[in-house]
Amino acid sequence: MDDKVPNRGVRLTPGTPANTDQSIAALDYQQSITQIATDDFPASTVRPTNGSTIHHEPGLWLYLKDQITDGLNVARLATIPHGDSVLALGTSSVHDGASCIFDINGLPTGVDQDIEKNSYLAPYKHFKDNLFQGLFNPVSPNDLLTAANKDVTIVKTTTLDVDSTRPAGGVVNIPFVVRQANATVVKSTFWIQELAEKDKYAKPKLRLQYSQLVMLDFFPRVDGLPPGCCPGLIQWPHVSINTHQYNGEGLRCVTPSS
Q: Where are any strands of DSSP class E within 35-181?
């Protein structure tokens, strides 16, 4: 972790403070996800085998300690080997107790979302009616985070909420990704939780939950809207969720990723 990264500033107008430098705390992170269980409907012959690494992401969390703009005091920089770079900006907050886990609609936009009648959404209906591993519903993915909080006493929560659609944020992709499955939006919320349960040093155990939504643009819309109305592509929500508990050495996964 780098605690005092300086961004050098200049005095833009007479009468403004001479010291316009910004100080940033930066924390490196590495995210790696290994596939341990899968199911497809209809059955697929191209999915990775279990044990494969399906996501790798080096990045940085930034805490903007001063010279704050529009109340945005945290940023997340991420790079993914598919050919994507992300800058998401947002806010941090601390409050007592647990956070209310918000809902995410896992269905694609740009199609008729009647899951009972639209055959395009047959995979969603299948796993809504037959939960993956008896736990996961892709229509309402954040339900899994809520379930993980059952019977857990959370004393304090630090929330980091970042969004690539904020001014100056964005997602940049290589041409192939833009042409085939363009990643256009990244929104993520991280909850760092201090538990009532104590570790072997009599300190509160820590836990991390997160929910991330990435919108991927694929095919032309097929929702029956009149020509010229709401043009664009079908947007597929790629949702990642997880609950990790710190065991004194590292983060241990206690609920599956989506």
A: 53-64, 74-80, 84-96, 154-163, 170-173
